[in-house]
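The protein record passed on for reference:
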Amino acid sequence: MDQPVKLAKVNRVLGRTGNTGNVTQVRVEFMDSDSGGRSIVRNIKGPVREGDIICLLEWEREARRLR
């Protein structure tokens, strides 16, 4: 059972979050044509930098902003 995925490009690294700082909050922009350049904020675990392409299994939920 294959789930659809969406590709997104990391535009900006916003900061580190989580109890120990092991999660990075980033702004990503969808690469498909039907999204029209829509961008959202997501939390990513693991190494990430600007320009990386990530594969999102779930793309409707947006992360809360850092305070």
